[in-house]
Amino acid sequence: MPMEKLPSIDPAGSRVSDMELLSNALAYAAVPDKYVFPPEKRPYAFLDDASSDVALPVIDLHRAALSDHRHQVAAEIIRAGKEFGFFQVVNHGVEEGVVRGFREAAAELFALPAEEKLPYCSDDQSRPFRLASSTSYDRSQTRYWRDYLKLSCHPVSDELVRHWPAKPATFRSSLAEYAAAVHDLAQTLLSLIAEGLGLPDGFFAGDLSGGDTQMNVNYYPPCPDPSVTLGLLPHCDRHLLTVLSQGDVAGLQAKHGGRWLLVRPVPGAFVINFGHQMEIVTNGVLASVEHRAVTNSAAARMSVATLVMPTMDCRIGPAPEMVSEASPTRFRSFVFSEFMEAYSATAASREDVLESFRLDRSPAATA
Prior knowledge:
Elements: E1 5-9, E2 15-20, E3 51-52, E4 58-60, H1 67-83, E5 86-90, H2 96-110, H3 114-117, E6 129-133, E7 147-154, H4 158-163, H5 171-197, E8 213-220, E9 232-235, E10 241-245, E11 252-256, E12 259-262, E13 270-274, H6 276-281, E14 291-293, E15 301-308, E16 315-316, E17 334-335, H7 336-345, H8 350-355, H9 363-366
Helix pairs in contact: 1-5, 2-5
């Protein structure tokens, strides 16, 4: 079934683009040409790109509430971060009903008739809520097999909620509840990370995590041929910390040891990964790891990524505690808004964006 082409409307009512939404079609008999990648960029192009079955660490956060186990949990997080850059958390305090409530509301929004989604469609990245397709970072003409909601979700205010859709009826209330709960979880994780690294209590509080929290709700419909397309390009997150609700359908892959590791869903878990800002403030101890999304032919997949970010005027650089004679300063300091501009200019390329902020630019480091 062909996709319906929608004219995207900006807040002033003018046309900004012609947008095709994958979620407007019931099914696909074949992958349209614009979603077919050249052979060398396909998800299983090379043997060393094949998906690995190494399992991510799963950390029980309930133990962190017990004083005699808290330091042990913090150490587990740092160990997982150093080895993988990713881990999963269970018994995290976010109620199952809160997660399910928002995921169901978001799924209903993607399922709305095309004309009801039209007012939310936009390529304008300044909007606090918008619906779009593919990605705005990749410069190629090939499109990614993905629709997404991109929105500001915390701190919640009447003005912010006004920008959220009124349909489905449960969307606004379930989003507000979910965003608050995940914000609390993120602050717990940041406190444990600081403890595990020997940083001062509250190190990540304030401007480092005080920016407007962003959310990407990603929808990947069943794909007729997952071998020729991708759901999302390989990238690292530009923020500080990502808290991901993956649901029960696999599709997230993280780079590990030169291979792509499939992050298998764990019931009730959140997937946690570090963004570029975490790598920089820890002077490279906790690296931001490349990840991507692959598609499947059997079931739709939806993920909800909550992105904790600094304020735009936050000055960022390696923490003094993370610098020593054995580990000299690896990155220059900068204002976060500068990093955001560099990230967009380099199309989310991990090495290209970090090169703009590295201090060690010897031939060995840049080869």
